[in-house]
Design brief:
By secondary structure, this protein is α/β, with parallel strands linked by helices. The protein is built from 13 helices and 12 strands. It folds into 2 domains: about 230 residues, D-Maltodextrin-Binding Protein, domain 2 (3-Layer(aba) Sandwich), CATH 3.40.190; about 100 residues, D-Maltodextrin-Binding Protein, domain 2 (3-Layer(aba) Sandwich), CATH 3.40.190. About 35% of the residues lie in helices and about 15% in strands. The chain has a 5-stranded mixed sheet with strand order 4-3-5-12-6, sandwiched between helices. Strands 9-8-10-7-11 form a 5-stranded mixed sheet. The protein has a two-stranded antiparallel sheet with strand order 1-2. The longest helix is centred in the C-terminal third of the chain and has 20 residues. The chain is globular and about 65 Å long. The relative contact order is 0.21.
């Protein structure tokens, strides 16, 4: 997505792997053997944008040979246009894409035959952020102020919901589209706050610069919780290549577990893929992000998609006019069958 553009400046490395099958396990779930045939199984994975701390487990899995152990030849691609990933999955030019829950629900509302099969970031990363800590102590202090967004429709809907819950009239706050320049807009005081910056990326960057931002998270402000980053495939690919999808997501779980166990080593793999990333920032961001890469309920496996939360978020999108029909996401837009310990 566009709002990640300013997080990194380099291109990704595509890395291939090969070899044998290995037993995989997810926290709180039964151990499960992922068995592969002798033939190498190619799988193309498109990022949502450039390699950044959200992808740390993917690059750890590549480095550690987790995909090779599952007999997968995984090729990572970087989109030249942030609008590409879901379109390329829909046209079956790539097998898997990293995307966002609201983007998937909008695409499905327009008829795209896509399904989410795992979550990477299991809570919102988007935040309401300000550098004016003295004046803006809570949402009510935005009255008479200006909030910058990236110009994305559902961010405007977030702002409406947040203000309504705080009892602030919508016309008492001016919304300004600042595109990719959320942080510069705050630093230059063009806006009093922004809605769209990620607390684990821009928030960490600002903290490291000594700017001490005040950060309000979406799920604390009245917006229904959602999975910020998800893995998406065409429903036909899920049906035809279920074994490869299962092997991929469970090997990916090993990568994120490796990042949790040794963040520094995992960040080394990430920076190798994107040398323009500042290593100290990447490490700080990964450490801040690690809790959201795993379900809060330890009985659930890595990648868990909670149907009730998807249904609630979909109902909110319908109420806000972002989609034209209630998606019944828990029944049709998601599947947990490829996660460790789960069956179809």
């Amino acid at each position: 997505m566009n709002r990640l553009a300013r997080r990194a400046r380099a291109v990704a490395a595509a890395i291939a792997a090969a070899a044998l099958a290995l037993a995989l396990a997810a926290c709180g779930e039964k151990q499960e053997q992922v068995t592969a045939s002798s033939a190498k199984r190619p799988l193309t994975v498109m990022l949502d944008y450039l390699p950044n701390p959200d992808h740390v487990g993917l690059y750890a899995a590549l480095r550690d040979g987790a995909f090779a152990d599952a007999n997968l030849d995984v090729e990572v691609e970087v989109p030249s246009d942030p609008a590409q990933p879901l379109k390329l999955v829909q046209s079956r030019r790539v097998d898997v894409a990293i995307s966002y829950e609201p983007e998937l629900l909008i695409a499905r509302d327009q008829g795209a035959p896509l399904v989410a099969f795992a979550a990477i970031a299991q809570r919102p990363l988007t935040s309401l952020m300000t550098l004016d800590r003295r004046r803006i102590r809570d949402v009510r202090d935005l009255r008479g102020g200006r909030v910058g967004t990236a110009g994305i429709p559902y961010q405007s809907a977030y702002l409406r919901t947040i203000l309504e819950r705080a009892g602030v009239p919508r016309d008492a706050v001016e919304e300004t589209s600042v595109g990719f320049n959320l942080t510069p807009a705050m630093l230059s005081r063009r806006v009093d706050a922004t809605l769209g910056a990620f607390w684990n990326v821009e928030g960490v960057q600002l903290q490291r610069r000594g700017r001490n931002p005040r950060i309000f998270r979406m799920e604390e402000l009245g917006v229904p919780t959602y999975d910020e980053l998800i893995l998406v495939a065409h429903k036909e690919v899920v049906g035809e290549r279920g074994d490869a999808i299962r092997a991929f997501v469970q090997a990916l779980a090993r990568g994120y577990e490796a990042a949790r166990a040794d963040p520094e080593a995992a960040v080394d793999a990430l920076v190798a893929a994107n040398p323009d990333l500042d290593r100290d920032f990447a490490l700080a961001s990964v450490k801040a992000s690690l809790p959201v890469f795993f379900p809060e309920d330890e009985a659930r496996p890595f990648g868990w998609l909670e149907p009730r939360e998807w249904d609630a978020y979909g109902a909110w999108m319908l109420e806000q006019g972002l989609i034209s029909r209630r998606p019944l996401a828990g029944a049709t837009a998601i599947t947990n069958e490829f996660l460790a310990g789960q069956t179809g």
